[in-house]
Amino acid sequence: MKGLFYSQKAAPYLFILPFILTFGIFWAFPLGRSIVMSGQNILPGQTENVGFDNYTRLFHDRLFWLAMTNSLRYTLLTLVLLIPIPLVLAVLVNSKIGSPKIKGFFKSAMFIPALTSVVVAGIVFRLMFSESDTSLMNQIVSFFGFGPVKWLKNDLTGLAALLVVAMWRWTGVNMMYFLAGLQAIAPEFYEAARIDGASRWQQFRYVTLPQLRPTITYVLTISVYGGMAMFLESFMLYNGNNSPQNIGLTIVGYLYRQGVEKNDLGYASAVGVVLLVVILAINLTQLFFSGMFKKENR
Amino acid sequence: MTKVKEPKEKVQGSPAGRIGLFVSFAIVAALALIPFWAMLVGTFQDGDMLIRYGLNLGIDPSTAHVHNWVMLFTDSGPYFRWFANSLVLTVVQVVGTLLISSFVAYGFAMYDFKFKSFLFILVLVLMTIPFEMLMLPLYIQVNTMGMADNYAAILLPFLAQASTIFFFRQFMVGLPKEILEAGRVDGVSEFGIFFRLIMPLLKPAMAAMAILNGMASWNNFLWPLLVLRSPDKYTLPIGLNTLMTPYGNNYSLLIVGSFFSLIPILLLFLAFQRFFVEGMTAGAVKG
Amino acid sequence: MKWTRKLTAASAIASLALLSACSQPSNEETPKATSTVDQQAGADATPLTLWTFVELHGKFYETMAAHWNEEHPDEQVKLDVNVMPYDDMHNKLQLALNSGQGVPDLADIEVSKFPNFTKGTPALMDLTDAAAPYVADLVKSRLDLYSKDGSLYGLDFHVGTTVAYYNTELLDAAGVDYTTIKTWDDYKAAGVKYHDATGKSFATVDTSAAWQSNLLLAQLGGDYLDADGNVTVNSPEVVKAFDILKDLQDSGAASVPPGGQPDTEEAYGAINKGEYAAMIMPSWFMSRFTAYMPDLKGKIAVAPAPVVENAKVKTVGGGGTGTAVPSAGKNTELAAKFIAYAKLSKEGNVEIWKTLGFDPLNTSMWTDESITHDPTNETIQYFKTNPFDAFNAVSDSIGLLVSGTSPNFPSVNNLFTTETLNDIFESGTPVQKALDQAQSDLKNELGQ
Question: Which residues pair with C82 in a beta bridge?
Fold first, then answer.
C-alpha cells in the first residue's frame, strides 16, 4: 500500500480521484437524470415517458419565451455594461498616474459590493427602488423633475433596476480580473511600442488588447453564464418569483417555478436542458471565435 | 525582526491628470458605497417604516434610534444562531474546497496520464453547466442518499470545485517541475511532495481562492434553501429571508441583521486582499 | 505591517465567533424562537412538528395545545412550530410530501395553494372522522373548499366573509354616507363624489390579489373554471366583473394601492395615512387594522359589501388557511384529533376570534352577544361599528367559488395576480383582450 504513495504512475489517478467521485456522483448522474426526466411526465407516484412532448409544449409556451427574452436581454445588456466599463476602470487604475493608496482604497471599495449576499443586496435595492416617493431612487428622479416611479412594476424600469444591481455588484469583480490581466503584461512590450513611436491609444489597441484577450474571453464566458443563469437577483428584488407581469422572470426562474412551485419535474427538466444548450452554444461559439481551441493555448 | 520598509512609490502624472483621476475614482467609489450608507442609515429607523416608505440616504434625527442595534445584541432570537451556522459552514467549506481542489489540480498540472485531456475538459465543461439546471435532480438524489436537511449535502458536491481546480491548475503549471524531481531524489512520496513542497508555494492562489470561495459559501442561498429544513440549521442568508414575511413584523431585524452580516466577509477580504490580485494574476486569466 | 493586519482580522473573526457562541445559551432556553407560549406539556407529551407561514397562527396553535393538554392529560402534545416565508413553506412542503421524507405532522396550507396538494392521490390524511364531532355548527362551504371526492383534507380558521371597510372620518368630511351604499352603482357614485371632493381615491383596484373580482364573480354567478376544470376566464360573467372594477378606476373612484392590494405592508402605510377611504376585503383584514393601522382606531366602520343587481349571493369567503395532516407523518391520529379540536371546537372558535380576530366557522357564535359584544375585545374596541352586525347581515348568503377546489385553480390565481390584473389596471389593456390572453395562456399551460 505504501508503494502506492510513491508510485509515480498511480499518483495522478489518486490525486484526481476526489474530482472523479464528486463529479460522477453529484454532477454527471443528476445531469443524466435531468435529461431523462425532461422526456417524462412526472406526477406524484407515476412517471410516464412522453418523448419530446415537454419540448413541444415549451415551444408553444408564451411564458417560457418571455423568460428566455428576459434572460437574453439581461445578458446582452450586462455584457455591454460590465465589460467595457470595468476594463476602462482597470486601465485607469493600472496606469502610472495617481497615488497607489487611493487606488488601493478604490479597488477595495469597488470590490466590496460583490461580498454582499444576494439576499442583502436584494433587500436594500428593493427598498431603494420602492414606489414610495421617499425612496432613494424616486428622490433622485424628482430632483430632475420626474414624478415618483413605480420602478418594480414596469418592464423597462424593472430591467433598469436589475441592471443597476448587477453593475453595482460585478463592476468591481470584473475590474479586478482585468487588472490582473493587465498586470501580467510585461512592460517590455510597452517599451518597445513606445520606442516605435506608438501613441497611448495605439499602445492600447496593439499591445494591451491582444494580450488581454484570454482575460476578456474568460470574463465574457463567466458573464454569459452569470447573465443567462440569473435568478436570485430578480427573486430578491421582486420579493419572490412572481413579478408583476413576469417582467422579472428568467429562465432559471421559470425552471424554479415549474419544478419547485408547481412540482412539474419533467417540464422543469426540459427547461433546464434548454438552458444548458443555450449557454453551451453561446460559449462554444464565443470560444471558437477567439481561438481558444487552438492547441497551444492549453 | 527588521521591518523591511516598502520603498515609497513615486506618485506620477501631471496634477491635472491626477486630480481628474481622483475625482473619477471618488465618484465611482461613492456610487458603489451608497447602498451601504443607505443600509446603515436604515438600521437606525423602524423596519416597518422602511418597507412602507422606502430607503434613502438622509437621517432624520427626530425618528432615528438605536433600538435595532440594541435588539440585535440582546433579543435577536435565532439571528446569531444563523450567524454561527454560516460561519462554521463557510470555514469548513473553504478549508475543504481549497485542500481538495488544490489536491486535484496538482494531479492535472504535474503529471501526464491517460485521459488527462479528456478529464480536464470535463472540468471545463463543469464550469459552464448551470448549477440551477441540476439542482432539482440533485435535490432528489441527496434525499435518496439520506442527506436531506444535512450540511453534508451542502458541502460534498462542491469540494472538488471546478473553477477552483481550474484556477489552481493554471497557477501550478507555472511552477518549476524541478521541485518534484528534487523531492523524488530525496525520497519523498508523491503526496509528500505535494503537501510539503508545493503547498507552501500556493499562498497567493490560496488567498485568492479563499476569498472567492468564502464569498460564495457565506452568501450561498439557493441550494441551502432547498436542502435545509430545520430552523436551527438555517444559514444567515436563509434566515434573513425568513424575516421578509409580512406576517412576522421582523423588518427591523432584517435591516440591522443584513448590515451586520457584511462584517465577517469584509474582514476576510481585508485580511487577504493583498494576495488577491497577486493570486489572480498568476492564475486563471492566462487562457 | 502584514502580520498586525492579519492578526487583527483573525482576532475580529474569532471574537465574532465567540460572540455568536455565547449567544447560544440564551437561545437554548427557548428552543424555538417563536415559542413564547407555555404549552404545559408533560414529559410524556408527543412532539408534533407544525409548519406555518404566519407567526400569529403558530402562537394560536400553541395556546390551543395548552388547552388540549389540560383536557387530555394522557394524550398530551408538544408543538414544535416552524414559521417559514409563505412561498418557501409551500415549496418545502411540496418537496417533502413528494419525497416522503421530512414531512411535518401538521402544516398550514393557504387556500389558493391547497389544490396543489390534493393532486393525484393526496398525500394528506382524511380528516372527516376527526372533524365529525364538530361539523354540525360549521359553515359547510368552508369545509367543502378543502375537500376532494368526499374526503376532507384541510381545516380552516374562518369564513373570511368579504365585507366593506369605510373610513368614516374621511367620508364624513367629503359628505359621503356609507350606509346608503348598497349596490356597486352606489359604490361608484360615492367614489366619484369622494374623488371630486378630495382629489384622492375612494377605493382600490388590486393587481396582486383577487378579493374584489372573486366577490363580483360569485355575485354574478360565474366562475374561472367550469365543473370539469376547463378554463372559462373570458366568460361573460368574468368580463362583467372586471368591467365594473375597471369602470371604478376610469371614473377616478379607485386606484391601484402601493403593494398591489390592501394586504401589504406598503398599503397599510397608505391606508393609515388616509390615502384610501374604502376597502373591500375579507373579514380577517380586521386584524391588519388592529396590528398595523393604529391611527385609524375608532374611525373604521364595517358594513356589508356592495352587491350587483340580482346577485346570486351576497358575499363570499376570501382567503383561508387549511391545516392538513400529511399521511406520512408519524402521529397522524393524534395530530388529526388535536387540530380538529384546535380549530373546530367551540373553545377553538372562541380563541380564534379572541386572539386572531377572525370570523370563526362556528356561526352559532356570531349571535352570542357575550362574545360578539365583549367590550374588552381589542377588535370590538377598534371598530366604529360592531363587525358581527355586518357578518350577520350576510350570513345567510355566503357563497363559494367552486373553482377554488380544482387543481387547475392555482395556475389561474397565479396568472391573474401576476399578469392579467396588471395588464388591466396598470397597463390599460382592454378587459376582453386581457382575459382572452389569459384564457389562451391557461389553456396552453393546463394542456386544454
Answer: C51
